[in-house]
Every structure is written in C-alpha cells, then in structure tokens.
C-alpha cells in the first residue's frame, strides 16, 4: 500500500465527496500495519486540510489545466506532495519518489510526469517564505480559511479574528481528565512522572492535565483501567457547571461520544439516574465503550432530543446538559475538515435546530432546575444570541451567572489557555 496514494484517496473523499475525516481516516489507517505509517497518514491528511487553499494555490502555478473526473484524485496526490515539501522534514527525494510512485497505485502511470514536474517546481521554490508566495493571494488563501468563515470571524471578533485563525492552524494539545473515582490527580501525576511523560500544565481547580505533546492513549498509565480519559480542557468545564448532586435525575442531551456523561458520573457517582441521549446510534457505541472502560453506568437512549414523545418518560430532570449540535467552529484545529465541509448556509439551519432542541429539552426540566447550554462553536448566532432569544421568549427562564467571568456567559476562543473554542451559558427554570 502506497501511503501517499492512500492519503490522496482520503482527501478526495473528504473534500470532493463531503465525507468526514473522522470516518475516512480510521478506515484508511486500518489498511496499514505499521503504527508509524498510520501516524504519517494522519499527519499528511490533517496537514493538507489545514493548508488546503495555499497548497492549491501553489499547484495552480504549475498545472495549466485543472484535473477533473477520473484524474481528480491525482490533484490531491499533488497536494500531498506539496504539503510534505513545504511543511514536513521528510527528505525531498523521498517525498517526490514516494508521491510519484503513488500514481501506480492509483492506476495512473501516465500521470507520473505531471506529478513529478509539479513537485520539482515546488521544490525549487522551497526557500520562498509564505509571505512572498502568497503576497498577491486572496485572504482565503493567505489564511487557509473559507471566505464566508473569515467574514463571520471578522464581524464577530474584529480585534481577535487573526489570533483565532492562527490558533485554528495549530496542532491541538493533548488534555487528560483524571477519574477521581479511581485515583487522585496528584497520584496520577506521579504515575506520569514514573512513565517519563511530561506535563505542560495542571489545573489546580479541576481534574485537567495538559501534556507537553500527544501520545498514543495505550501508553498512558492506567488508561485501560479507567484512571484517565482524553478530553479537551474547555470541554471539562461542562460537568463542573452542571453541579449535579446526589439523588438527582440528570440528562446529557446530544451526549455522544460520552466524555461529558462520564465526567458527570465521575463527579457524582451517587446520582439517581443519568441519561445519555443522542440521535445517532453508531455514535452511542462510543458512549457505551467509554462507560464500560471507566466502569460507569448510565441509561443510553437513541432518539431525537427535539421529539420528547420518543424518549421522555414524563419524570422531570433536576439538571440538563445540552451540548447542542453546532458548526464546530471552535474545534477546527482538531477537525480541519470542518473548514471545507461547512457552508455559510449551514449556520442558520443549525440555529433553527438548536432552538428546536432547546425548547424540547427545556420542557423536561423541573422548576428550580438548571440547564447548561454549551457548544463547540465561536459564532454568536449559535451562542449568546441564541441564549438571549431563548430567555426573551420564555418567561420561566432566567440567565444565571457561571461565576467564572464578569459576563453571564463564557466564550472560550480557540487557543485561549491552550483550549478548544467553547461556549457556556447557565439557565435556571423559575419555580
């Protein structure tokens, strides 16, 4: 299996066919035996998606006629080669020879000359800085973000949009959540030290630890025994904000893949009942796997959260966490395909969906109960504007302070404290 050809196939499926990288990449990695090859495949696919417009801009300098139809996959093979030349330490000769060899695997021996010529030309321009290469390019090329998203970020964050874009281009750090039912944070840090795993940051007020670099989870001490989970530092605030207590009925709406459900149970093992609700059955499998590994118990329900008749038994909840379906614009560094899979028209559709789910799950909250509304978006339409509208149109809803900022809500921007972009607001139901 030629790894570059496999990368080109994955990228073709994601960019041209609209498939999720989270689906395509693991399927492709399963065809490789060597862990290093799996890692390189991931590096190439993530990298090309991060820098897609810049790579295409460079390719266009040396291709007179766009590659379409059956030749389209070779367009992505060329991008794979350019990415390696510009952004990795792989020797140029190995990059070019392996990428050209990918033509055979893709049944396009006649394309070898073109692929080789483009990469040789790019190689000659390696010493040029990005500033020089893209001096006359459009903003979507300069910043490797779609134009519609740049416009929304510029309007919402006129002072911060460039920092947000820069953060989106970074590789995500690795955050851990220590399971306090199994081990204390201090003792787990001791295990990391014994395993010679370096820590970059420890949150003194939670179970969050940030490592200096990513690692295979199987190398983490006690991972298989449920001592620790991988969860971004921003997402770890969700269960804390829920403030669940013993004997409470708790709903985690839109729960997959289950990290927040598990965290709620770790913090409140004596809860009366925790329901993990999600509309996608295949994603609920991940919830079940996480619960099993951590030796936790929750009721897993597959249903549309907006259709309460399909899943609610009529008994109200004391606490609700609604991590609503959203644009994912806060987690682009972790999922760079979001930039190319999302469209401007998706945002309004998501806002309507969020409103529908909000109204439905609110009806299941008991008077005096609280709901945490959360998204991994940084767009105001999905966040503050959504909450403002809900409070204005529901007389029994009050916006409660989270207690972490001067504002009622909390918008975490990508890269802030090395965390993902995330939004939180707390709503209380008047008794």
What does this structure look like?
- One of its GO terms (molecular function) is RNA binding.
- It holds the Pfam family NusB.
- One of its GO terms (cellular component) is cytosol.
- This protein has three domains: 3-135, Orthogonal Bundle (N-utilizing Substance Protein B Homolog, Chain A); 175-230, 2-Layer Sandwich (Alpha-Beta Plaits); 237-429, Vaccinia Virus protein VP39 (Rossmann fold, 3-Layer(aba) Sandwich).
- The relative contact order is 0.09.
- The strands form two sheets. Strands 5, 6, 7, 8, 9, 10, 11 and 12 form an eight-stranded mixed β-sheet that branches.
- 44% of the residues lie in helices and 15% in strands.
- It is of the alpha/beta class.
The top level CATH class name of the largest domain: Alpha Beta
- N-to-C series of helices and strands: HHHHHHHHHHHEHEEEHEHEHEEHHEHEEE
CATH fold node name of the largest domain:
Rossmann fold
**Number of folding domains?**
3
* Main β-sheet description: 8 strands, mixed
In percent terms, what proportion of residues is strand? Answer: 5-15%
Q: How does the overall form come out from the CA principal axes? A: globular
Radius of gyration: 23 Å
Can you give the mean pLDDT? 96
Q: Helix fraction? A: 40-55%
Helix count from the secondary structure assignment? 18
Number of strands: 12
Contiguous low-pLDDT stretches (5 residues minimum) are none
Function: Specifically methylates the cytosine at position 967 (m5C967) of 16S rRNA.
Pfam family, one: Methyltr_RsmB-F
Protein name: 16S rRNA (cytosine(967)-C(5))-methyltransferase
EC number: 2.1.1.176
